[in-house]
Design brief:
The protein has 228 residues and is an all-alpha fold. Helices cover 64% and strands 0% of the residues. The chain starts with a helix and ends in a 9-residue tail after the last helix.
């Protein structure tokens, strides 16, 4: 009974918090993105961050009463400027190992998705070529491990959370770049993460702080059309 009471209290607090935030979201997100972009506009770090590209793209394409930057050409120019820079630098990158792209490539992919219809043919092909070059590395990493008996360190020679990010990258790239083999491979790996790889206590690793990464990656596979 005590546990039930505690659970009920937690749920009521969560509902009240969501109701409170409902009055300020997503407007607060738009404000935060815009203020951060304004701060970074004159900074040299602006040109090396796909997260900046995504923020500018979201502000440009998302029509909402609280978004004052919808259709703002300045946001579009910023997103395109960053996208061109990131693509150029990626194609010049001599490293065969592309793991250093794992944390922000999702921002890059989503920016491509949001802006694809507004890209020139030349720019679209340039961005796509750079993205595909990186995703092929992630594809190889997932494909090499897909038949391993467990998605855990002793078997896969990396951590479960890294493999989850690799798989979700391949899946998302397959959806956005319309590559069915990538989508199928990513789906297969994330299905294992969601349905087979958790321990009996619901964990993926001995480090609880990184357990959210496989869960988040598996959640990427929502099976909803990304081009709708």
């Amino acid at each position: 009974m005590r546990r039930l009471y505690l659970l009920s209290t937690i749920l009521m607090v969560q509902v009240a918090t969501l109701q409170l935030l409902g009055g300020v979201l997503p407007g607060r997100y738009f404000d935060l993105m815009a203020s951060e972009l304004d701060r970074l506009e004159s900074s040299s770090t602006l040109l090396n961050s796909p997260s900046v590209m995504l923020a500018a793209a979201v502000l440009y394409v998302h029509q909402h009463p609280d978004n004052d930057f919808f259709g703002d050409e300045k946001m579009l120019d910023m997103a395109l400027q960053v996208g061109d820079y990131v693509a150029d630098e990626s194609l010049k990158d001599p490293e065969e190992d592309r793991q250093h792209y794992e944390w922000e490539i999702h921002c890059w992919l989503d920016s491509y998705r949001l802006l694809e219809a507004r890209l020139t043919h030349e720019r679209r092909n340039h961005w796509r070529r750079a993205l595909e070059q990186n995703v092929r590395w992630f594809e190889a990493e997932v494909d090499a491990r897909i038949e391993f008996p467990r998605f855990q360190g002793p078997f896969i020679r990396t951590s479960t959370n890294h493999l989850a990010i690799f798989a979700s990258t391949v899946y998302l790239a397959g959806r956005i770049l319309r590559n069915q083999s990538w989508e199928d491979l990513g789906t297969r790996a994330m299905h294992r993460l969601a349905s087979e790889e958790q321990s009996v206590d619901g964990r993926y690793s001995q480090v609880r702080s990184v357990d959210h990464l496989p869960v988040r990656a598996a959640g990427t596979s929502d099976h909803q059309p990304v081009h709708a």
